[in-house]
Write a structure and sequence with these properties.
Length: 478
């Protein structure tokens, strides 16, 4: 007998990780950026600006960045790693490269550079943004498993400091391009060391059966090393390993670091070269919901420094300069997405009544829930609720039942049309993965400080979105 006939209406159960809130209106501080608070009346406020004003003035959906939080996070990464890898401790220093694919625009490229970080790119478009922002080429890295001739030529002209070579084909191509330009390309080899990071399968990238990198176990990395070591047009700077994303287990990084340093020792001995750089990649896990328990930045830096020192001692090699490439960990917690509620629906399901709260964006501005089964949290942002907490599912407005933003969260049961809902930690892989599904324009990104509110990415308008359709005459565009 269906549940709704068998007894009184009951709500769907909460997932085991989601605690019943003491106060459904309170913000869980660890999920929000430094300068986000709630006023006594329950209005979410960022650096003194209320989201009710921001929504009124700038519209929804909008991504909102806490600029001071972002720069503090970038500076904190650099200072924690610089302290752990200092020459006083017998190490050879460190570089932190922000992974631009997480979220990139010229303002962010500039802030990252001013904070002393380098910038990783993986396409012509990303390099163009870095260059327009005034980031010097030698502070830029270029990744990618299938770089085009145009991208490699641009990188050499720009003076990119590190090209992460990902295949044997690329070695041949890059060598010929560098030779034709009469120059020498700076090369780091991206190797896969067979470490499987403990994270969601779709975003783990160090399995051997995957498109990235040169396999150590299959001998491809050794072949690549020989080719680069013997090339007059390639400068062999070092090795790179990236084991995945949203990783909470330190041991994956430790094993990967040990294997890369072991490979480095073999290559240096065999080819009589010095490899001054080792890049340990990014993927440091962050907190999207209360179930996530990230490793503190300074602790991770310290652990990695100890592994590097110990392995190099054991191998009898010098210590390389280390680099890391955090993307998500720097930008994600510094932004939230502000939506307005349109419709609220109670749906009778096998496990009880589920409340669907539909907002004015969705999988076009945050596809991570649909793509990776990611969990997010959210909060009513325009008022306090006096109602009992209820489990809700926040969904978008797209023609797709998988168009879910927040799978499960407690909100006051009276959430209704016209309310504002804010989803924290949407800085990484949300705007950068935005799409125009259902012909929705992509939202803008508002950068907020105490004395300034400005677009760092303007909201796309209909004429921008539709101009690639030659059938849209000017008159039909908004
Ligand atoms: C994606 C990526 C990163 C950044 O990953 P995060 O999870 O955002 O820290 C770093 N390095 C490489 C090579 C990547 O592909």
């Amino acid at each position: 007998m269906p549940a709704h006939i068998a007894g009184p209406m009951h709500a769907t159960p909460a997932p085991v990780w989601l605690p019943y809130p003491d106060d459904v209106n309170a913000l869980l501080p660890s999920l929000w950026s430094d300068n986000v608070t709630k006023s006594d009346s329950g209005i979410l406020t960022i650096a003194g600006h209320s989201v009710t004003d921001l929504a009124e003035r700038y519209g929804t959906p909008t991504l909102v960045m806490d600029v001071a939080d972002f720069t503090a996070r970038a500076e904190n990464y650099l200072s924690a790693y610089s302290a752990a890898f200092s020459t006083e401790k017998g190490l050879a220093g460190v570089d932190v490269f922000y992974a631009g694919k997480a979220f990139l625009c010229t303002a962010v490229a500039r802030w990252v550079h001013e904070a002393g970080l380098g910038l990783d790119t993986c396409s012509l478009g990303e390099m163009m943004v870095a260059r327009a922002a005034g980031v010097p080429g030698d502070r830029v890295g270029l990744h990618g498993n299938n770089k085009s001739v145009a991208e490699l030529e641009y990188a050499l002209d720009y003076g990119v400091g590190r090209i992460f070579v990902d295949s044997l084909d690329e070695i041949t191509l890059l060598e010929s391009i560098a030779a034709a330009k009469g120059t020498v390309a700076p090369v780091m080899l991206r190797v896969t060391v067979g470490v499987e990071a403990h994270t969601h399968d779709f975003i783990a990238t160090a399995h051997e059966d995957q498109k990235f990198g040169l396999s150590v176990s299959a001998g491809t990395a050794a072949k690549a090393a020989e080719a680069v070591a013997n090339s007059a047009h390639l400068r062999f700077d070092g090795l790179h390993s990236h084991i995945g994303s949203q990783i909470f287990d330190i041991s994956g990084f430790q094993v990967a670091a040990a294997r890369v340093l072991g490979l480095r020792a073999e290559i240096m001995a065999e080819h009589g070269v010095d490899l001054p750089d080792v890049d340990l990649g990014g993927g440091f896990g962050i907190r999207y919901t209360s179930q996530d328990t990230p490793i503190p930045v300074a602790e991770m830096a310290q652990e990695l420094a100890e592994v590097v020192a110990k392995e190099c001692r054991g191998l009898g090699t010098n210590v390389p300069r280390i680099s890391i490439e955090p993307g998500r960990a720097i930008v994600s917690p510094s932004m939230f997405t502000l939506y307005r509620v349109g419709t609220v629906k109670e749906v009778d399901t096998d496990s009880g009544i589920r409340t669907y709260v539909a907002v004015d964006g969705g999988m076009s501005d945050n596809i991570r829930t649909a793509l990776y089964d990611a969990d997010y949290s959210c909060s009513l942002a325009n008022r306090n609720s006096g109602a009992e907490p209820a489990i809700v599912r926040v969904v978008g407005k797209h023609c797709e039942s998988g168009d879910i933003i927040v799978r499960d969260e407690y909100m006051g049961a009276d959430v209704s049309s016209g309310d504002l809902v804010a989803v924290p930690s949407t800085g990484a892989y949300c705007r950068s993965l935005a799409n125009n599904y259902n012909h929705l324009p992509k939202p803008g990104v508002l950068a907020v400080t105490a004395d300034k509110v400005e677009w760092i990415v303007t909201p796309e308008d209909y004429s921008q979105m539709l101009r690639s359709d030659p059938g849209m005459s000017a008159g039909e565009q908004v």
